[in-house]
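Researcher: Let's run the pair from yesterday's discussion. Sequence first, then tokens, for each.
Model: Starting with the first of the pair.
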Amino acid sequence: MAARAASLEPTPTAKAATRRFRHGFPPAVRPSGIAALDSRTRPPDDALPSGRTVAMDLQDSLVTFLRHFPRTDDATLIILKGHLLLEEEINNLLHEMLPNPQALDGLQINFFTKTQFARALIKNEALDAILDAAEKLNRLRNRLAHNLEPSGVEAAIRDFVTAADGRILGGETAPEQQLKRRIAFLCGQLLRFRTEYRAARQILKNRVGAGKSKPKRS
């Protein structure tokens, strides 16, 4: 991840994202398989990662995204840079899910293997949908990277920006803007999944610890 900004104070965007995270997401966007953190089921604040830790983590990802995401309408650059940003979020997710991610340092693992690795670690329909779209972008990126005059790019772009329900994210805007919106959406979904996964894991850890600390009845 990129270095943190000079200021240690979370940005307004990061603060808002943290508030939303700590008080739960609407039911329609919660990934299945992860406990809903709404006001009825949310555990005490000390059972969750600290607000400042979450805010700084969100800020790191936001700073990286805003620093590197293209401001141009060059579709090729959007695809290549967007692919790198999406891969970075997948790397972050794997780092969160693996108990000893450092063991993989130095290994050359391709994009598709990373997505399959994530699928193997947790079975979740919401995550599967995100990774399906990520793999479409990976195929599109490879088509551009390995061919001087690639064919079928426009059709591949339409396939990528079309959601599973047939909607085109971004509506009737230009293909370049649809690409940007789709990539930004996927990066945000991976970031959200990672923070909720961390919270769920911390809750489970606290419950297991509380169970072990209870004295046995004679």
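Model: Moving on to the second of the pair.
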Amino acid sequence: MRKPLIAAAALLALQLGAAQVPRLAHAKSCQDSFGNNAYRCLFKAEGDALEICVQAISPGSGGKFDLAVGEGIATLLQCMCEATGGFEKPKFDDANERFLCGNSEFGDAARGKIEGNGGKITKGQYLFNDDLDTSFVFECRLDPTCGP
């Protein structure tokens, strides 16, 4: 009789103790950082630079969130946060900074890193899959006055 009572008391103590342990909050995802913000971006090819407004739209139409890319490229990209973890145990849409986008209509693709609580986009790369298959690098800064 005593052993089951001790075992039950130990189990209860473990359960109560576990309930008191604070749970770690999941880190903010890249989608959270984008919100529905507008960005003024500088897209640069081999010689020329082009200023383009980009609007984040969350939730998105096809992906987790969208990026509406304005004049000069004029497309809607479906995006998600990059996967984290390794090949054996990937965690999809889990990165808190890195994102990946695509567009099935034109075949455009983009990736980059959102930093500073959504204040800027860095290390951006863009494939503009038109007749020229042009590639750009880009950087952006938060600008509420900018719209696609």
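Researcher: Give me one sentence on the second I can quote.
Model: The longest strand covers residues 49-57.
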